[in-house]
Design brief:
The protein is α/β, with parallel strands linked by helices. It is built from 26 helices and 32 strands. A hairpin with an 8-residue loop joins β1 and β2. It is globular and about 80 Å long. The structure holds ligand MGD and FE3-S4 cluster (F3S). GO terms for molecular function: iron-sulfur cluster binding; metal ion binding; molybdopterin cofactor binding; NADH dehydrogenase activity.
Length: about 850
């Protein structure tokens, strides 16, 4: 019997089941899956002709068989109005995951809306509006009319600066090129909204400004580089749990030494040694544990730095490597500028860095050697640098990001096989929007403006500040107060009187109230304060395009209906635009109304063709039909042409790919220039794809690595080194917080949970494992606080307080805890200060607080395992 899934047998997928391309819409990795659907009253048979796998299912299958799926991969959903069986299982042919699933993606089917099997019943099915003191269902027309009238009224009084927006900017679930274009065209095209923020941070900005300012886009390598690298440097990331199949399918082969053939084939003229791994992280993660088990302890170095001190380490690396002459001089001369300035400005001795970071001089020296000391035969080491939230949401984001890119540039490791300096990423990407230049830099600190009473109407798209913002407690207190003012005003209006309703809302807005519109797939925590909920469709319920961490773009095909009357976000944005146009026209503002033209889309493909196809680099080559034909492998952005068709002039190419199939890559010509004679793989065509009505038979040619030609994203094409001096804990108040409170409240993700658990909170597998957010603690600290495993604790400081469940682990250093981030039952953001960097990037990781026991472990904790998460080779 499958775990609490009430299934004791699973239907056989029939041979003629419909097949759809799916990219897991959860994390950045974007694993390829296939969705199979078929009529509810049928199933396949065991004979090879009767099932999708084409094998005799009456026979025992081997351990690695593909002719299998798990109960979590099964559901019954609606498709074109009818109930159908669905199986969503990993695709062996996808080059990203080669058939691997993760504990998140392999549950995509059971995380789908199914009235038949009672899964995700929380999904919104209809627009809802605040009426009679509660949220009540209504129709699209009614809801959108109110949204448009209040929005127009606020704009009339306060200008467009009175409209505040929170919106995702990514791909995958709640995002994708269609939806970022839809929202972008509304707020940056029809309007020029300035008070806008991104889903996970309080302003509209890049999380990685520095690398971009240096001319180095943050997703510049390909996943295969992790298989080719001599050394991998990982900073502030825990990829086994957070980029799972990238780690399992592309790091592990290198850690185990099984990618050696690939190395020899692609780089025949240099020696190849087993890989070395350096992980910079104040805590010991299961990723470090896995690296040690797979590669051997002597090849893995954990640099457990003092929280927030990465910058000093990177500057010391640069200084030492430059002193030793291990830099790539030819590359620096040909393709970069300001190297000498940066080396002089950032000079940091090993001793100074040791004092700041808490590492030993030997550790810093040895890690620099692993990064840059030439291999035997004086061959230059291939080092890949990868970072994520430990850096991005860490101390002094901008400079620290720049300091790491400095080291990668100095050692000539960008744009070359086995190299790269990349963020590991969170969601997939799917950004296509009109220019945001009017937002300015630094962008408005939207959360603070809301706290300070600014704005009259707030449109929220697929994000939940209540769980995922910094300074969350204060934000919630103020937001509730402001939106309650409007709720009370709305409740006082007699039935059916729209003008009076709008007047009452505006009266409340003038008194400091805020009208809140939440576009989401579920009722969120911030939504409890909202006045209107607009139900959105998610991936699989609409056609959706996005790209992953190696810029691999695919189309997830619609395989089921959205719940009830839910719609794709791009169409919701279009309908808001249509209604604003109507309302402005009715009020005699024809010129304003005209700005909302061009939203006559009826499908998500219309939005895609209007947005990505017309506006993104290489977009002219990309259509749904071509993507569909290229399956789960897609192509790597930017597109530079069509095989058998026109070829564009994409710069930064060299190393181009079509949808790579295993075995397709052949050795291409060496690209000469700044890089010297680097071998660059070029892909050949795969087998001809099936012709489709709009040219699907032509394969899109993509770009395997950026900057392989040594030309960077600056006016003169040269990458710029950055001066990045150490300035302590940079965000206001952080040092004082550290001095005052006993515990580091480090925080982040865990394997089971996707994001703020917005879907997981209705899933037994996750909720039984984590009924409350854990806080990992050193056992000695727990003893001192009289805590047993699973006891409930309060975490508090001057920013606020929150609650968690104590989880003992020897891995935690004394007085250094790690709390699950963004969990509904205990929001870590409550204790994160409002302190940000100069570009309004939050600093979650450096948080200090005190801890006290609240209660013994509650009932839900009974039966929970607190065993070590470490695993051994045996
Ligand atoms: P985190 O757990 O946030 O995950 O992916 P990651 O960045 O890999 O943090 C990574 C590490 O930063 C932690 O181990 C923490 O100890 C370390 N850290 C803390 N302080 C410092 C410091 O001062 N210096 C350094 N060097 N490291 C420090 C996040 C990524 O995960 C994101 S952004 C998203 S949106 C996705 N979300 C997600 C999810 O919700 N669940 C799962 N399972 N996977 C996910 N993948 C993505
Ligand atoms: Fe999904 Fe693969 Fe990530 S299965 S959650 S995209 S590792």
């Amino acid at each position: 019997m499958a775990y609490k899934r009430q299934i004791d047998r699973l239907p056989i997928i029939p041979a003629d089941a419909r097949e759809h391309n799916v990219v897991c819409h959860y994390c950045i990795v974007g694993c390829g899956y296939k969705a199979y659907t078929w009529d509810i009253d049928r199933q396949g048979t065991t004979d090879p002709a009767g099932n999708k796998f084409g094998v005799d299912l009456a026979e025992q299958q081997g351990a690695e068989t593909e002719a299998w799926y798990a109960p979590s991969m099964y559901n019954i959903v609606r498709q074109d109005g009818k109930d159908v069986h669905i199986v969503i299982k990993p695709d062996k042919e996808c080059i990203v995951n080669s058939g691997l699933g993760s504990i998140r993606g392999a549950r995509m089917a059971e995380m789908s809306y199914s009235p038949v099997r009672n899964t995700e019943q929380q999904r919104l099915t209809d627009p809802m509006v605040w009426r009679y003191g509660q949220m009540q269902p209504t129709g699209w027309e009614d809801a959108l009319d109110l949204v448009a009238r209040v929005t127009a009224a606020v704009i009339a009084e306060q200008g467009e600066d009175g409209l505040f927006v929170s919106a995702y900017d990514h791909g995958g679930a709640g995002g994708g090129y269609e939806n970022t274009w839809g929202t972008g065209k509304l707020y940056f095209g029809a309007m020029k909204v300035k008070n806008i923020r991104i889903h996970n941070r309080p302003a509209y900005n890049s999380e990685v400004h520095a690398t971009r300012d240096m001319g180095v886009g943050e997703l510049n390598n390909c996943y295969e580089d992790a298989e080719l690298a001599d050394t991998i440097v990982m900073v502030g990331a825990n990829s086994l749990e957070t980029q799972t199949n990238y780690f399992l399918n592309h790091w592990i082969p290198n850690l185990r030494g099984t990618s050696i053939d690939k190395k020899q084939a692609q780089m025949p003229n240099e020696p190849h040694e087993p890989v070395r791994v350096i992980v910079v992280d104040p805590r010991r993660t299961v990723t470090i544990n896995a690296c040690e088990v797979e590669a051997g302890k002597d090849r893995v170095m954990h640099l457990a730095i003092n929280s927030g001190t990465d910058l000093a380490l990177f500057n010391a690396w640069l200084t030492y490597i430059a002193e030793k002459g291990w830099v790539d001089k030819a590359f620096i001369d040909a393709a970069t500028k300001d190297f000498d300035k940066a080396v002089a400005g950032n000079r940091t001795s090993l001793e100074e860095a040791a004092r700041i970071t808490g590492l030993t001089v030997d550790q810093i020296r040895q890690s620099a050697e692993w990064i840059a000391q030439p291999k035997s035969g004086n061959a230059r080491r291939r080092t890949m640098f990868a970072y994520e939230k430990g850096l991005i949401w860490g101390n002094d984001n901008y400079r620290t990001n720049g300091a790491l890119v400095n080291v990668a540039l100095a050692t000539g490791n960008i744009g070359r096989p086995g190299g790269g300096c990349v963020r590991l990423g969170g969601h997939q990407e799917g950004y296509a929007r009109p220019s945001d230049a009017h937002v300015g830099r630094p962008a408005a600190y939207v959360d603070q403006l809301l706290i300070n009473g600014k704005g009259g109407v707030h449109h929220i798209w697929g994000c939940d500040h209540y769980k995922t913002t910094l300074n969350a407690l204060q934000f919630k207190q103020v937001y509730k107060k402001r939106t309650d003012l409007v709720k009370d005003a709305m409740s006082a209006v007699p039935w059916g009187d729209r003008p009076r309703m709008v007047a009452a809302i505006m009266d409340a807005v003038r008194k400091g109230g805020l009208f809140s519109v939440d576009v989401d797939i579920i009722p969120t925590q911030i939504g409890q304060a909202s006045h209107i909920w607009l139900p959105a469709a998610t991936s699989g319920e609409m056609n959706l395009t996005s790209m992953n961490g190696e810029r691999r773009m695919r189309l997830t095909e619609r395989y089921m209906d959205p719940p009830g009357r839910a719609m794709p976000d791009c169409l919701i944005a279009a309908r808001i635009a249509n209604n604003l146009e109507r309302v402005f026209r009715e009020s005699g503002k024809a010129d304003v109304a005209d700005r909302f033209k061009g939203f006559d889309w009826t499908t998500e493909e219309d939005a895609f063709m209007d947005g990505y196809h017309q506006h993104e680099k290489g977009g002219e080559f990309v259509t749904y039909a071509r993507l569909r034909a290229m399956g789960t492998n897609g192509f790597q952005e930017p597109a530079v042409g069509l095989e058998g068709g026109p070829v564009g002039t994409g710069s930064s190419t060299g190393g181009t790919t079509t949808g790579q199939q295993p075995g397709m890559v052949v050795q291409g010509p060496a690209i000469e220039g700044a890089r010297g004679k680097e071998p660059v793989q070029q892909a050949t065509a795969g087998s001809a794809a099936a012709p489709t009505p709009t040219g699907g038979s032509e394969r899109i040619i993509g770009t395997k690595r950026l900057y392989a030609d040594g030309k960077f994203n600056t006016k003169d094409g040269k990458a710029v080194f950055m001066e990045t001096q150490w300035r302590g804990l940079q965000a206001a108040g952080k040092q004082a917080e550290k001095d005052k409170f006993a515990f580091l409240i480090n925080n982040g993700r865990t394997n089971h949970v996707w994001q703020s658990a917005y879907l997981d909170q209705e899933n037994d597998l996750v909720m039984d494992r984590w009924p409350f957010p854990f806080i990992e603690m050193n056992p000695q600290d727990m003893t001192e606080l009289n805590l047993k495993p699973g006891d409930l604790v309060e975490v508090y400081n001057d920013n606020g307080s929150t609650q968690a469940m104590a989880y003992p682990t020897e891995r935690a250093r004394p007085k250094q805890t790690f709390m699950l981030f963004a969990y509904p039952m205990g929001v870590q953001g409550n204790v994160v200060s409002a302190g940000v960097n100069e570009f309004i990037i939050p600093n979650y990781k450096q948080t200090w607080g005190n801890i006290r026991k609240i209660a013994d472990a509650p009932e839900a904790v009974r039966g929970l395992s607190f065993k070590s998460k470490e695993y051994s080779a045996s």
